[in-house]
Amino acid sequence: MKEELRNKLLTKRDIYPNWQEDSEKIIEKFLSFFDLSNFQTFMLYYPHRREVDTRPLIKKLLSMGKNVVLPKVEGMDLKPVKIKDLDNLVVGYAGIKEPVGQEVEEKSIDLVVVPAVAYDKQGYRIGYGKGFYDRFLPKLKKNSLKVGFCYDFQLLEKIPHQPHDFKVDVVITPTQILKTQKEE
Fold first, then answer.
1. For residue range 75-106, what is the model confidence (pLDDT) as tens digits?
2. Residue-wise burial string across 93-126, b where 16 or more C-beta atoms lie within 10 A, e elsewhere
3. CB 15 within 8 A of CB 21
4. Distance between CA atoms of 184 and 123, rounded to whole angstroms?
5. Is 184 part of a structural domain of the chain?
6. What is the model's pTM?
7. Which domain holds residue 47?
8. Is residue 109 part of a domain?
């Protein structure tokens, strides 16, 4: 079921006409919702196949003097690598641009934007099926904030999840900001 849903949503995203406009709305919501002075090191992703476009946010954070890291795939693991700009990236795993440079300690990351095919209102996600972020997120410090960006059609009522699946703390769409509730 999860695989079928993943494929259906990826197909829809690949032809989604409003991705740039909606990406801008999501970034605006992020910037207005968070007090960025509370965070120094941000991990984002480089957009691929009409994912929410994080490039304007990356540039903004760098211009503010923040530390920005992007993921680099090594084997079956993600390694956070600090960037100075978006010019020195190379095509890596699955055709996604990756950083070249100094790896940083996972525990130094204050806020991570986690890519996904979909999120639900509890903060669970459908990823791309390889488990990279399920293995990476436990390495962060406990109070690192996990944020999900998605288009409205990618926000689902409920996603089937496993005990090892991690939730994000906040989901941002073009029309809403959802603080996910802790399960009792």
1. 999 999 999 999 989 999 989 999 998 899 99
2. eeebebbeeeebebebbbbbbbbbbbbbebbbbb
3. no
4. 14
5. no
6. 0.94
7. 2-179
8. yes
